[in-house]
Amino acid sequence: MELFKKIRILSLEQATVLPYLTYRLAMDGMEIIRLEHPKYGDPNRFIGDNVLGEARMNTYYLTINAGKKALTINLAEPDGQKMFRSLIEVLDIDIFATNQLPRNYKKLGIDYDTLKLIKPDIIWLGVTGFGPDSNEGAYDPILQARSGLMEVTGEADGPPMVMGIPLPDMGTSEHAYGLLMKALYQREVTGEGAHIDLAMFESSLSWLTVPISMAASYGKTVSRRGNTHEFFSPVSVYESKDGFIYIAAGNDRQWQSIVSQEMFQSLDQPAYEKNEGRIKDVTNLNKAINAITRNYSTEELIDLFRSITVPISKINLIEDVIEDPLVKEKLLHSKDPVSGTKITLAPSPYLTPLLEKNNRQLTFPPRFGEHNSKIYGQIGYTDEMLAELKEKGIV
Q1: Residue 298 · residue 242 · CB < 8 Å
Q2: N or C: which end of the chain has fewer CB within 10 A?
Q3: Model pTM greater than 0.90?
Q4: Is residue 94 among the annotated active site residues?
Q5: What is the CA radius of gyration of the chain?
Q6: Number of domains in the chain
């Protein structure tokens, strides 16, 4: 894993899909240099509260950009493209990534063929909404709508709903993470780089394993069903005296364990003995269970179900999640060296050597063009030259 310290990534990124990917890679210890237009920058910098009291450092941006460096560059200008090519060559960039529309690749001088001439073993990643032949813009909810993710989200008798997290964005980031790791391994073995085109639409579709297979193979329509499960019962949200719980009985043995308890004995009926019978009458069964659980506290229900080894959980608020013993010690942190502001970040999927070494601390999300002087200085640009280029709108 220490080898990742030597991997340098140049990412022309904005919004969520690429910033989340490079955030994950930063946790591995890779050097991430994000590129932004000197006038417009990443729109996400303007979203959320301005907790630092300075431009382009709003809360939404801060969540997934720790651990990176930031440059501004205008790739629409020849001078900007010249600087970009120098970055690729002089800094020996391993991976270039972009979520620009494909029609802009050649115009900006960032297409794979151009970069391969500069660095033959470069790994090139282009993330698009619908593939390299489409220039259709794609925001996460649009992909949720078109891929069918919204059709399977929501109450059975209600409208389709957007998911609580941006799965097309972050799911694509995870797929890209795997593809880049394979490409790095391939380069290590063969010396060859890679050209990767990844469509968010295809990534989104890949999560619909059961719905697509059921519909295409067996003509079975799978749609939204609220909190219940298509194939198992009882699996749903139920009320308690002081909140909500989720119970998931995955087999008939677990059901027998439930109805063996005095409070649920009225549901020990032949029609419910097998999962098939419970599914057929799932609405009435859930109402009956709910009528029982609402008489007990969340703690009482959790203690009971855990004692009979039937999966159960309190439905936590995010504030509860943060205080969970399994979460609290795994949260990531970042401190602004300028203002002293501290931010708490969601945990990594695993503890990387970098996070372990740094006590789960990442460098603060970079300010707009924060590393212009330092990084451009490495490729021969003085502060005076950069000031002149700034006047011209190049950086």
Answers
A1: yes
A2: N
A3: yes
A4: no
A5: 26
A6: 2
